[in-house]
Specification:
Blueprint (H helix, E strand, L loop, with lengths): L1 H31 L3 H24 L3 E2 L4 H29 L8 H23 L2 E2 L4
Antiparallel strand pairs: 1-2
Length: about 140
């Protein structure tokens, strides 16, 4: 039952991350004329930081990384690095396959987010938040 709850909360965090990612990306592209490939890097970093906070305080609240706050964030970002590569490959591939999406890259963000979600959950659950918290 715990995995089901964790998956649901991870999905909620992913939804929050998606909204942040998409909003920052779309603003950089539409309002600032940024290149959608470069803008996605900045949008992803902001979204990954928010999802780390969500997942450490909600999804994996009963689990421990055994690390300091900074150490945990750095480990999270490193683990999400592989998910980011998967995410970015799906994002860039979508923009290449559907050139009209370059004006609305949020569609490609959705594809990248969906593909990377499984990779990200597995990495977080099995490599970072693998120990139950010790209650005093």
């Amino acid at each position: 039952m715990r995995h089901g709850r964790e998956l649901m909360l991870f999905a909620v965090g992913g939804g929050i991350g998606f909204v942040i990612d998409a909003a920052i990306l779309q603003a950089l592209v539409s309002l600032c004329g940024a290149n959608p490939y470069v803008a996605q890097v900045f949008a992803f970093l902001a979204a990954a930081t928010v999802t780390w906070w969500w997942n450490r305080s909600r999804t994996f609240a009963e689990r421990s990384s055994g690390r300091s706050l900074l150490g945990e964030w750095l480990h999270w970002m490193a683990l999400m690095g592989f998910g980011a590569v998967v995410n970015y490959a799906a994002y860039a591939g979508s923009l290449l396959l559907f050139p009209s999406w370059r004006r609305w890259p949020v569609l490609a963000v959705a594809v990248g987010s969906a593909v990377a979600a499984v990779v990200n959950y597995a990495g977080a659950r099995m490599m970072l938040y693998k120990k139950p918290k010790e209650h005093s």
